[in-house]
Design a protein that fits this description.
This protein is an alpha+beta fold. The chain is built from five helices and eight strands, in the order H-E-E-E-E-H-H-E-E-E-H-E-H. 26% of the residues lie in helices and 18% in strands.
């Protein structure tokens, strides 16, 4: 189910981004699985970091979103995510294991612009190797009860929770991922199999004066993009003549050990 959660959330984002009404191209993303909340409750969810734009289907240009703070419609993303998840687990005969109200109700998805992403990466990176609860947050173990510190959702103030020892152990073990499970995954043009495309994409971004995105004006006109800038001349290290880019070659795959 963890695999399904990561795969279907990425597939839903890619499906909407490929729609010409939104971006109309291939996006890249980094998906990180989080199985718990701040209060150590079991709540598997995925954080996805998505660059602000897409690569056109023919690979010739970088496509910017219409609005600075909007990529894809979150409500539509919720429906597609739910449908792809249902489709994925149906062959395993797991649909009947979920309560009936799960499928008609809206699923929780959220998306927002975060600037350059530096702030998000700074806060998300430490949690990749972080466990559900560290020893220094356990304050007392007495009479079969464990007291620990936590921060409730939406609050930065420390609170205290006391649980029976058996329930505390059960909650903690719920957050232990299967052996060998990869909790950070890359999709689209950020996938390792797309390294040659990523190199080409960096070239596109370097040769175009990509301005910061601006919202549409009152007439709903697309933002103005200045003409692309030319690359500085790169001399050949041998003859000092100017190098001309013909095409990008993919890196050869390493032979198995």
């Amino acid at each position: 189910m963890y695999n399904v959660l990561l795969q279907t959330s990425a597939a839903a984002l890619q499906a909407l981004a490929l729609d010409a009404k939104h971006l109309g191209g291939q996006i890249g993303m980094v998906g990180v699985l989080h199985p718990w909340t701040r209060e150590m409750a079991y709540h598997p969810h995925v954080h996805s970091l998505v660059p602000a734009g897409a690569l056109s289907p023919d690979g010739s240009q970088w496509l910017s979103p219409r609005y600075e703070d909007w990529r894809v419609p979150v409500r539509a993303l919720s429906h597609i995510f739910r449908g792809k998840c249902k489709e994925k687990i149906a062959p395993a005969n797991l649909l009947d294991h979920a309560p009936a109200h799960v499928w008609p109700q809206a699923w929780g998805t959220h998306g927002e612009a975060v600037g350059t992403g530096k702030e998000v990466i700074t806060s998300l990176a430490p949690s990749i190797r972080r466990i559900a609860l560290t020893n220094n947050r356990i304050e007392k173990l007495a009479d079969g009860y464990v007291t620990f510190r936590c921060k409730a959702s939406g609050s930065n103030e420390w609170q205290h929770r006391t649980l029976p020892a058996q329930e505390f152990i059960r909650r903690f073990l719920q957050h232990v991922l299967p052996k060998g499970f990869i909790k950070v995954r890359y999709y689209g043009f950020l996938s390792p199999t797309w390294r040659n495309v990523l190199t080409h994409l960096r070239h596109l971004l370097a040769t175009s004066a990509c301005p910061l995105l601006a919202p549409h004006d009152e007439k709903n006109q697309p933002p103005h993009h200045p003409p692309p800038a030319t690359l500085p001349a790169r001399p050949c290290p041998t003859c000092r003549g100017q190098l001309v880019l013909i095409h990008h070659r993919s890196r050869p795959k390493r032979a198995p050990p």
